[in-house]
Amino acid sequence: MTYLLGDTSLGDAMKEALLPENVNFLGLGVNPSFYTSLIVAGVLILFAIAMRVFVIPRFKDVPGKLQSALESIVLMFDKMNEENSLTRGFMGAYVFSAALYIFLGTMVELIGLRPVMGDLNACLALSVSTFLCIVIFSARAKGPVGALGALKDLTLPVSMSFRLFGSISSGLMVTELVYHFIFLSFGLPVIVGVLFTCFHALIQAYVFAILSSLFVGEAAVPSAKKVKTKTQSGETELAAKE
Fold first, then answer.
1. Would the pTM of this model clear 0.70, i.e. be above it?
2. Which of 2, 97, 178, 220 could form a disulfide with 86 if both were Cys (CB 3.0 to 4.6 A apart)?
3. SS (H, E, C) 177-234
């Protein structure tokens, strides 16, 4: 059975949600999510500049509500990486930025824009960034051997990108499915769409931040050094030393 809304069938709408037609960018055909990514990146950059110029200089020793909320968010992401001294600081800022980008890049769906992560290239770019962090911190903790060991996990950015892309794409398809049933097309999709998008954006941002922190933290653990010890019988044993 085919459900219609105007002249568009449900199958065509689902196909358009998953595989939209390319749009023109300087003579090149790009995914519509590319323009959304530029908008989201621009908004985040302007927001960061405004926070640094107008808000942060006014922070006080006794924080107000806004300062407390901001500090709580920053501390939450810092705690994901506090166990490893190598990743502390940088990874907190990285996962916070990535999570905020994913969250805002998904929430723009509420104003009619295509989600940033609806393009597999965007998901792959974030996953490759995490993989580069794994290689770099593994090299710092274990030396060249650690970097070579991290390179064996080349499937990691692929799996992370497809997981993120699949989750966002499934949300797009569910939304299209709800809107194309006539008996659900009045009132309910607005409520369901807003709640689903907010929940979906939070979950995907948090999961990506957790996975990135976990993988990089594991890679940044220094190798145990083995030292020789002698027993009472004169035999030599190898013991692991942190």
1. yes
2. 220
3. HHHCCHHHCCCHHHHHHHHHHHHHHHHHHHHHHHHHHHHHHHHCCCCCEEEEEECCCC
Choose among 119, 107, 99: nearest CA to 193.
107
> Residue-wise over 152-167: b if at least 16 C-beta within 10 A, else e?
eeeebbeebbebbbeb
Comparison of pLDDT for 117 and 150, the residue scoring more: 117
pLDDT digits (tens, 9 = 90+) for 64-123: 888 888 888 888 888 877 666 677 778 888 999 999 999 999 999 888 788 898 888 899
Residues with Cβ within 8 Å of residue 31, at least 6 apart in sequence: 20, 22, 23, 114, 118, 119, 121
Reading the block at residue 241, the tokens are: 């030393």
Single-letter residue type at 4: L
Query: CB-side exposure of 217: number of CA atoms within 13 Å?
Result: 20
pLDDT tens-digit series, residues 32-60 = 888 999 999 999 999 999 999 998 888 88
Per residue in 89-103, is it b (16+ CB within 10 Å) or e — as a string?
eebbebbbebbbbbb
Could you tell me the two tokens for 132? Answer: 């580069």
Where are the chain's structural domains?
4-221
Closest-CA residue to 114 (of 106, 102, 122, 104): 106
Residue type at 130 in one-letter notation: T
